[in-house]
Amino acid sequence: MARLSIGLTGGIGSGKSTVAAMLVAEGAALVDTDAIARALTAPGGAAMPTLIAAFGAQIAGADGALDRDAMRRLAFADPSAKRKLETVLHPLIGAQAQHEADAAASEVVVFDVPLLTESAHWRARVDRILVIDCSETTQIERVLRRPGWSRDVVERVIAQQAARATRRAIADALIHNDDGLTLETLAHAVRRLLTRWRGDPVEQ
After folding, report:
1. How many other C-beta atoms are found inside a 10 Å radius of the C-beta of residue 74?
2. Structure confidence by residue, pLDDT tens digits, 106-140
3. For the chain, which terminal residue's Cβ has fewer other Cβ atoms within 10 angstroms, N or C?
4. Distance (Å, rounded) from C-alpha 101 to C-alpha 54?
């Protein structure tokens, strides 16, 4: 069968990473663009010299890695900073993502892309788009359980992401993942969808 590429996305706190792990458990290969971005901005990461040249040494921590809190504050204060960051990172992320996809042995490759909704480029390079959806209240409650997050910061991140309705509009399939849904029920929904998509030939 032809390889099936799935674009997986969802707002912060939606449970997208949980669904990604479930897809991997079903045999899919995962290309995690967040993990790629972290590697690029780690100590000695390929993106760091360009980022320091663009934003100054204050965006790097003592270890040479990107100070994500400092970068987040800068992006909140200056929307052009966010665009500049994306101009540096996105081509590098895209190239590494394609390299990982090409090396994958699985017939199903899942691209975990938080900004898929905002990127026509990513939407064009996948066969199916799966959106993990939940209420904003659920998003906030989940992220507040993570260390270092305040309600104000979570709400500002949500406001900067694509609107929930916009994400839903691009979906080939939507999985609702509000609190109260058991992991067993979520896994069943993921398994059923993947089975259906595997049996539905992708037009070449």
Report:
1. 18
2. 999 999 999 899 888 898 999 999 999 999 999 99
3. C
4. 30
Q: What does the alpha-carbon distance between residue 64 and residue 41 come to, in Å, rounded to a whole number?
A: 9
Report the distance separating Cα 112 and Cα 121, nearest Å. Answer: 14
What whole-number distance in Å separates Cα of residue 135 and Cα of residue 164?
8
- Mean pLDDT, to the nearest integer, of 21-46? 96
Q: Which pair of structure tokens corresponds to residue 174?
A: 């939507």
pLDDT, tens digit, 9 for 90 and up, residues 136-195: 999 999 999 999 899 998 998 999 899 999 999 999 999 999 978 899 999 999 999 999
- For 81-144, give the secondary structure using H, E and C: HHHHHHHHHHHHHHHHHHHHHHHCCCCEEEEECCCCCCCHHHHHCCCEEEEEECCHHHHHHHHH
Q: What is the pTM of this model?
A: 0.87
Look up residue 126 and give its amino acid.
V
* Spatial CB neighbours of 118, under 8 Å, sequence gap ≥ 6: 162
Q: Cα separation of 101 and 162, whole Å?
A: 25
State whether residue 152 is helix, strand or coil.
helix
Q: Report how far residue 73's alpha carbon sits from residue 126's, in angstroms, rounded to the nearest whole number.
A: 32
- Alpha-carbon distance 84 to 51, whole Å? 9
Q: Confidence class of residue 204 from pLDDT cuts 50, 70 and 90? A: very low
